[in-house]
Amino acid sequence: MPPAVPSKTPDLRPPQSADPLCLQQITRTYAGKTPIEVLRGIDLRVRAGELVSLMGPSGCGKSTLLHIAGLLEPPTSGEVWIAGQPGHSLGITGRAALRRGHIGFVFQAHHLLAEYTALENIILPQRIAGTAPRPARARAADLLAQVGLADRADHLPSDLSGGEQQRVAIARAMACDPDLLLADEPTGNLDEKTGWIAFEALADLVRGGKTGLLIVTHNPEIGRCGDRSVTLSGGLIAPNPS
User: Fold this and answer.
1) What does the alpha-carbon distance between residue 134 and residue 22 come to, in Å, rounded to a whole number?
2) Where are the alpha helices (DSSP H) in 129-184?
3) 3-state SS of 15-72?
């Protein structure tokens, strides 16, 4: 049996600093004949320029927590603060605007648009956000250079290797300069060497900047390469033992 959660009144006051992510007393229970309590009171903060790895056994709720942090799924209770702004308490339109303006996503599958080149895949989210064509193209070219793919800008996804596709997806997630980057097993479909190249590209884009990274991974080596690693178990989260 998981340990009991201490009974207390949740403190959902605004955080004192506008960190990229602040989760306050997040719970998630799936209703049904037998309700399933997945998250039981999660407090987690990700600061600017910080890489936080989220680990734990399969089925423990890591992806659920990541979806809640990205405002893709509502918590049963608690609050999600994105760059100092409350997310869960907003309506659908407000959450979409907050997500679009402040959050980038990297998934296990790259989800690149097949008919667009690598450069165009990175330009597109910027154009949707209202960036003019010339600065959007310049930003896309700079990001491709940062992930080591400057010479692949005009290639379609089908002409890129799996690792190259994932690096384009990482660059696309950073296109609009988000406060928070959420990565769900971004190296899970790659071999060890290619996965490390993709992870290092991801880490290099975040370190020293304003963006905080929360990455779900089963790879303990990657988990140890962040600034902090936390483990989810029994619906609760705690720092990994040193």
Assistant:
1) 35
2) 133-146, 162-173
3) CCCCCCEEEEEEEEEECCCCCEEEEEEEEEEECCCCEEEEECCCCCCHHHHHHHHCCC
pTM: 0.88
217: nearest Cα among 19, 2, 52: 52
What is the C-alpha to C-alpha distance for residues 80 and 20, in angstroms, rounded to an integer?
10
**Per-residue model confidence as pLDDT tens digits over 180-197:** 999 999 988 888 899 999
Which amino acid type is present at position 51?
L
With 50 as the cut, is the pLDDT of residue 4 above it? no
The structure tokens 């407090």 sit at 43
Let me know: does 165 contact 112? Beta carbons within 8 Å: yes
Nearest-5° Cα angle at 101, 95 to 103? 80
Distance CA 5, CA 22 (A): 20
Alpha-carbon gap, residue 160 to 190, rounded angstroms: 13
Pairing of strands 228-233, 236-239: antiparallel
Give the Cα separation of 222 and 152 in Å (integer). 26
What are residue 39's phi and psi, to 5 degrees?
-120, 135
Both tokens of residue 29? 């229970």
Helix axis angle for 118-128 and 162-173, nearest 10°, is 20
Q: Which of 28, 38, 185, 4 is nearest to 105 (CA)?
A: 185
Residue 187: per-residue pLDDT: 86
